[in-house]
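User: quick one, sequence for these tokens?
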């Protein structure tokens, strides 16, 4: 029993799993794309190219617009942090 437990632990609970991938699976269950990294822009571009029915087309654009909003907020935060850093640096120099 202990040996089996060790084998299962070694196989499924490693710290760095081999062959990690991001899979994009369509509603029909088929594999649409496979990647070793999570590139949200490329993933959403692939999703946008997929055919959709009227109910789901609005959801796609809403998801993309939410991602764009989050990216804009991130850019604003970074700009704000740079401004604070530059102000503190100039105050330290004087």
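Assistant:
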């Amino acid at each position: 029993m202990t040996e089996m437990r060790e084998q299962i632990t070694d196989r499924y609970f490693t710290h760095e799993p081999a062959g990690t991938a991001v899979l994009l699976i369509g509603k029909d269950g088929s594999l649409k794309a496979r990647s070793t990294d999570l590139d949200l822009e490329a993933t959403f571009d692939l999703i946008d190219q997929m055919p959709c029915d009227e109910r789901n087309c609005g959801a796609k654009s809403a998801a993309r617009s939410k991602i764009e909003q989050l990216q804009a907020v991130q850019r604003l935060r970074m700009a704000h942090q740079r401004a604070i850093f530059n102000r503190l640096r100039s105050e330290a120099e004087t």
